[in-house]
Write a structure and sequence with these properties.
Two copies of one chain form a homodimer. Chain A is α+β, with helices and mostly antiparallel strands and 229 residues long. The first copy, chain A, contains seven helices and 13 strands. Chain A has a five-stranded antiparallel sheet. In chain A, strands 3-8-5-6 form a four-stranded antiparallel sheet. In chain A, strands 10-11-13-12 form a four-stranded antiparallel sheet. In chain A, helix 5 crosses helix 6. The longest helix of chain A has 27 residues. The structure holds a DNA duplex (30 and 30 nucleotides). Chains A, B: This is Nitrogen fixation protein FixK. Chains A, B: One of its GO terms (cellular component) is cytosol.
DNA sequence: CGGGTACTTGACTCTGGTCAAGATTTGTGG
DNA sequence: CCACAAATCTTGACCAGAGTCAAGTACCCG
């Protein structure tokens, strides 16, 4: 049922529930705020929006995976977050997106107009409170990531990443990473080679096992937690 | 008029306006939400609150400077932000402080009970909107800091820091840094020696001048902006 | 099954960290 | 106001962890 056109395509039907089951539309905001959510499908590596573009919509991942990132003028990239089914992204209190967003793999998102959400927040304090907590949760994550980038070693960063991804996308004991080594490096402030070496070392030590480069089984969570600090 | 007791001391009088002029109390929130703000004075290096402590109050710097930080178990420290007069800090949507806070120098803060602010937000959408924008501004800063920590060189980080501090605390062409080299390093994800070497190099190149290690005059903003990327 | 992308691994480099003095600044008590 | 102590800052020499460059290998996907 996945649309494969280059341009983002409108999905009239509800997206099929993925590994995560059906995704509650915007935490029920669309329900009690009377907002209409539309679905779109994006292909692998397709841009959802660019850095500093007007923030017209707020998005929620239904199926697939997104990366948000900033670029320096010479091409260095820092990924701010990976967004998986259920996650809201692109919510801004200002008028512009501060990071760009791209689909990591073919993905479906649900979206609502930012102006409508803001309007709902202006008349319903429950909506206003929800917007605040979504942003506050993002800030909490960002502060933890600042600690990781400022003070943790390469191995500590990779261990942290594996535990985060294990929590968010392990199904039946195995983790299917949607992103490549370069994405992981750009998220952790490392090169793709350093990420690869760290994963190989963990494999050699029996902490994890591979069944394909992006199919990982964690065999010793405690060892990883000790490495993460 | 600065109280010098070890314990935080209640200031009955309005704090004298500093270099920044009088600080608008919580952006007018205290006015239209009917909240009462109290003032306290803290001595250099005194803790305002610890990491994971219950978030009972929200703070605003009136005079002085604060650092908020996270610690790893082995003592590595990451400073999340420096807070200067006018800045709000300690605002949480949850019940705990996610970073600890300390006074960098003798400082005065204004504070309101978090519960009262939350209650005001539950009845007044303007208050709710203000809390959201304060948190969203913090998130924007955090995302820029993530880019700095993940992808910028030592010199780029120091140049960025100098431009930020120049904007926030230069008076009459000179910048009086309240924080030591270790604080700067722990903010920028560097060691104090690396910070010192970068500043010395900028001094040698004529980009800045010292009149005391913490009294800095920027002589070439454009060169710094070019270094910052 | 074949081609292209992604991943791994090795050899070497280099930026920033570590350790150790020494210099400067700041704070304090006489 | 000065002298001294303590803290902070600078600088040097050396080191190590992560980056760079370059093959070679594995894994998809058509």
């Amino acid at each position: 049922m996945l649309t494969r056109s280059i341009a983002p395509s409108l999905n009239v039907n509800r997206a099929a529930p993925g590994a995560f089951g059906p995704v509650e539309p915007f935490f029920g905001l669309t329900g009690h705020a009377g907002l209409i959510a539309t679905e779109f499908t994006y292909r692998k590596d397709e841009e959802i929006y660019g850095e500093d573009e007007p923030a017209e919509y707020v998005y929620q991942v239904v199926r697939g995976a997104m990366r948000t990132y900033k670029l320096l003028s010479d091409g260095r990239r820092q990924i701010g977050a990976f967004h998986l089914p259920g996650d809201v992204f692109g919510l801004e209190s200002g008028t512009k997106h501060r990071l760009a967003a791209e689909a990591i793999i073919d993905s479906t998102v649900r979206l609502v107009k930012r102006r409508r959400l803001e309007h709902a927040a202006g008349t319903d304090v429950r909506v206003a409170h929800k917007l605040w907590t979504i942003t506050a949760d993002d800030l909490k994550r960002a502060e933890e990531h600042i600690l990781l980038l400022g003070r943790k070693s390469a191995m500590e960063r990779v261990a942290n990443f594996l535990l985060e991804m294990d929590r968010r996308l392990t199904v039946a004991g195995t983790m299917a990473l949607p992103m490549c080594r370069r994405d992981i490096g750009d998220y952790l402030g490392l090169t793709l080679e350093t990420v690869s070496r760290a994963l190989s070392q963990l494999n050699d030590e029996g902490v994890l096992g591979f069944s394909g480069a992006r199919q990982i089984v964690l065999r010793n969570h405690q060892r990883l937690r000790n490495m993460d600090i």
